[in-house]
């Protein structure tokens, strides 16, 4: 049966002794989506992915894949998933064909369908020319392509990719990202990364995790719209205390420079100009600045952003 929701995890939790690696994560992947799992090292991304793919038993919570409960029917549920772990499970002593044949068998592809499955996966991942090469002799970028090919060999509706560009050079990174974007036309994707530009380049929606918890779960456009404006102003003869009604915070940066935060509905620039002229503060510079997505990510994952957390 075709389901629109391909993955639904509720209250997913994993403890290691007294330490909580993942705490009560809810996650939904719909058909056609590329969901990014973003977080700093140790945030719990790999642990979450291992639980979603049935490679690690959760301490609590449930996972449904394509409508099938992973705990009740692991084999049935896993049929809908292809997984590329952080360490690609490729065997350096095998050729690309040998390894992909082995992966097809593991994924239960019938013997009579294997040649066609290999052909398709190799073509999709740009591996046809290296079919007979030993994996150990391929570049890291090509080894990663082999990792992607094994994840799609059984044509699963979902592929789950754990930090797929780590350790690659900038050209290989671009190639793998573009390959993922192509694969996403046929598969829904969950992709983890600790690099925001990676998620921005590839994903439609992002789930930011920090210390095992979700701190943001929205579209990237929404993340950008959370960019709170602030104002930078500099006076040559600054007042002893700068006060301005209607703003939420004024931070003195020294040498007559200030950073002013206000509610997005109130723009304090006109009032600042008027006061500066009236009081002879000598306005040198005044500009509006929005926080970059990078700054928002850093503030979310360093625990300052209770307001944004509410949106999660
Ligand atoms: N087998 C384990 N035993 C004990 N603690 C573990 C184990 N595996 C992971 N952890 C801990 O769980 C937390 C989450 O780890 P996880 O590997 O999921 O993070 P991550 O976001 O994938 O980070 P990275 O990008 O560094 O892999 C970390 O604090 C880690 O030390």
Would you kindly provide a written description of the structure presented here, covering whatever features stand out?
With 312 residues, this protein is α/β, with parallel strands linked by helices. The two termini are 31 Å apart. The strands form three sheets. It has a six-stranded mixed β-sheet with strand order 6-7-8-3-9-10, sandwiched between helices. The chain has a four-stranded antiparallel β-sheet with strand order 2-1-4-5. Strand 1 and strand 2 form a beta hairpin. The longest helix is centred in the middle third of the chain and has 14 residues. It has three domains: 150 residues, Rossmann fold (3-Layer(aba) Sandwich), CATH 3.40.50.300; 66 residues, no CATH class; 63 residues, Alpha-Beta Plaits. The protein has eleven helices and 14 strands. The structure holds adenosine-5'-triphosphate (ATP).
Task: Provide keyphrases for this structure.
single chain, 312 residues, alpha/beta, Alpha-Beta Plaits, 3 domains, 6-stranded mixed sheet, 4-stranded antiparallel sheet, disordered C terminus, binds adenosine-5'-triphosphate
